[in-house]
Amino acid sequence: MSAKEIRILYVEDDKVDQMALKRYLQDQTNGYDLTVADSISEAKGLVDSREFDIIISDYLLGDGTAFDICKLSQGTPIIVATGAGDEEIAVKMMKAGATDYVVKTRLSTESLSKSIHYAIELHRTEKERERAEAELLKAKNATEAANKELTKKNRQLEEATLAAQTLAGKAREATTAKSEFLANMSHEIRTPLNAIIGMTDLALETNLTAEQRECLSVAHSASEGLLGLINDILDFSKIEAGCLELENVDFNLSDLVSRAAEIFSLRCNSKGLELLCDVEPGIPHWVVGDPSRLRQVLVNLLGNAVKFTEQGEVLVRLEQKAKQEDRIELRFSVSDTGIGISQENIERIFDQFSQADGSTTRKFGGTGLGLNISKTIVELMGGKIGVDSEKGNSTTFHFNLTLPIAERTTEQHGEKHADFEGAVALVIDDNQTSRLILRKILTAWGFQVMDAQTGPQALAILQDSVGAIDLILMDHHMPQTDAMELAQTITEQTNVKLILLGPAGGQDSLHAVDKRSYVAKPVKQSELMAALDRMLGDSNPANDAVKIVDPDARESQLANYRILVAEDHPDNVKLVSKVLQRAGISADFAENGKLAVEAAKQRRYDLILMDVCMPVMDGFEATNEIRACESLAGESRVPILALTAHATIGYREKCLENGMDDFVTKPIKRNDFLRTIRQWLESRPVRLMVDDSQPDPAD
Predict the structure, then answer these.
(1) Is-cis flag, bond preceding 522, omega within 30?
(2) 140 close to 118: Cβ distance less than 8 angstroms
(3) How many degrees, rounded to 5, is the angle at CA 195 between CA 194 and CA 198?
(4) What is the dihedral sign for C-alpha 587, 588, 592, 596?
(5) Of 600, 623, 601, which is closest to residue 610 (Cα–Cα)?
(6) Cα 551 from Cα 224, distance rounded (Å)
(7) 303 or 354, greater pLDDT
(8) Measured in whole angstroms, how far is the alpha carbon of residue 78 from the centre of its chain?
(9) For 436-465, b where at least 16 C-beta lie within 10 A, e where not — what string?
């Protein structure tokens, strides 16, 4: 602050002292603004009406002392000037609020100026300190308020967290209950399915007629389709948990597509629908991927197509989009001539529990899970599923996948065949798509192909091409043509080989032609090739039965081992017994865990198959008992394989944690089942055995 800005009130009743102070200030700078008051009352009036930067006051005044000036100063800094240097008075004045204390006899211009500036600077500093303290107090109060609010929020958060934990606990309990329910339901349904699929497998490995084989194949495919539906329920649970996994194995691609379509042949036939399967010739026979999941997608799409189609056709098509040395890009599509989907509903068609039209649920049934699961599977495989549709017209679901080509070699049904090269075939079918598919297949195999839509057209072609046609493929059911009458006419008037194409089981209606000349629709290229070989090739058609050779000759080496099977379900006992007997493996059976433990105590087995869910004592308890007995006797560990219909997430790990060594799920697949058993048995030394066993209860 400059001197010109300093406003001074000097309270002094002695005129001489007034003149002396004025002289000191004038010697310094003429810019001081000095106001003089002769008494305390006058000073009070001036302080009330004006603002001063500093007050200089004599200690003893006519109407009071400097203590009175301190009271009326209103916070203005005060310098007390006295004639005597009484330190006691100085201390009292400083305590009363004075900023400085000077002795008149020792004053000089320089000392007065220093005292004034010191007092003003000290006052300013004090004010800043007070302001800072006030701001600090304000901040402190704000912080305390914020802390209180934070404490309140924390308490609310803790309460919310506790509530969330409670809800999460209830959700976990609900999830556990749902998982247990799914596991139990899966087990209960898969157990009889194990017997159905297993026994059908065994029957298919016996000497059968073509008709018997076809019927059993359809039953087998349908059973696997039912198993797929059960797996859908488990898959939805896995998708929710983010635990859906894929496998990579070699599989027959064209056979998979054909068998997926075959499941719906009877249903399509009952609805009067044409079911068609178009596998582009030349596509590699074997690829690497997850056949179960791919089949699941196709079955879901085909199921929807058949469900929502009342007339016309359902077509599953497999096309090659691009091919590299070891990989192939494929396009799968399922088309129908059904009710179609409106554009506004296409966007949500793949949502969970969603259908294109809510009213269709009442008419057609379904939960809307299939498409959502299919979308998830396709995306896990690296593809993207889409749909093209028009309300009231048709629908095509399609997806592309890139799969590795398997290293194994096999005949390719898309290649030319020496016996067919140059042969002429006539295709008679009222369905244009079916004719195009057959023409494409036969042409790829070396045939020259003609086609006709009706019986009269076919007879006209035969008359114009006498002796030129080697083979006729004719649809069993054509609206404007009596296929059986036409077949009768052809076989009576010509020597042309004839193959009828019709629904599964349609052989029963054949009278005019050899039953061997019947191929079920949708036409599988492998079955058509076999039929053509019988008709035109070198194979002997006299024997209609097909003998199946044991696929694994090494199983005869397992006769020196003996295993124990703990299984309570009678049908599964019979199934496992027959599978093991055919493999030459000796087995004892126990119908519950307690009996299995007793049997294991009586003799040393090379391997134990242990069902998990059994009465009296379950598989886990039985395994723990056997392990305890082994430990007590100091015996080596016998391999125990879980044999269970449970297929939920983490169940394999649960079996291993309970002392088991491996895990086999039901329905059992014979080759995989025996391969697992062989792996465990062949790792153990062969022991000379004396057959002291009792007769097999399954015999």
Answers:
(1) yes
(2) no
(3) 80
(4) negative
(5) 623
(6) 21
(7) 303
(8) 83
(9) ebbbbbbebbebbbbbbbbbeebbebbeee
For the full predicted model, state whether its pTM sits above 0.90. Answer: no
Instruction: Assess contact for 686 and 214: CB atoms under 8 A.
Output: no
Q: What is the pLDDT of residues 15-54, one digit of tens each?
A: 888 888 877 776 555 567 888 888 988 888 888 888 888 8
- Going edge to edge, which strands form the sheet with 313-323? 274-279, 313-323, 327-336, 394-404, 384-390
Residue 515 is classified by DSSP as G
Residue whose structure tokens are 């596998």: 279
Tell me which long-range contacts 121-129 makes (C-beta under 8 A, separation of at least 24).
Answer: 122/77, 123/54, 123/76, 123/77, 123/99
For the four alpha carbons of 21, 24, 30 and 33, in that order, the dihedral sign comes to negative
Which residue matches tokens 């089949």?
295
Degrees, nearest 5: CA angle 174-236-652: 80
Element housing 474 (H / E): strand 471-475
Residue 355's alpha-carbon distances to 309, 314, 318, in angstroms, are 15, 19, 26
- The amino acid present at 128, given as its one-letter code, is E
Give, in degrees to the nearest 5, the angle at Cα 54 between 53 and 58.
160
Locate 655 and state its tokens: 């079996």
Q: Of the candidates 529, 530, 531, 533, which has an alpha carbon nearest to the alpha carbon of residue 518?
A: 531
| Pairing assessment for the beta strands 640-644 and 607-611 based on DSSP bridges | parallel
Cβ–Cβ under 8 Å, residues 529 and 447: no
**Max CA separation in the chain (angstroms):** 161
Q: Which of 467, 469, 464 is nearest to 447 (CA)?
A: 469
Separation of alpha carbons 17 and 104, rounded Å: 8
Helix/strand/coil (H/E/C) assignment for every residue in 577-610: HHHHHHCCCEEEEECCHHHHHHHHHHCCCCEEEE
- Per-residue pLDDT reduced to its tens digit, 680-695: 887 765 443 434 444 4
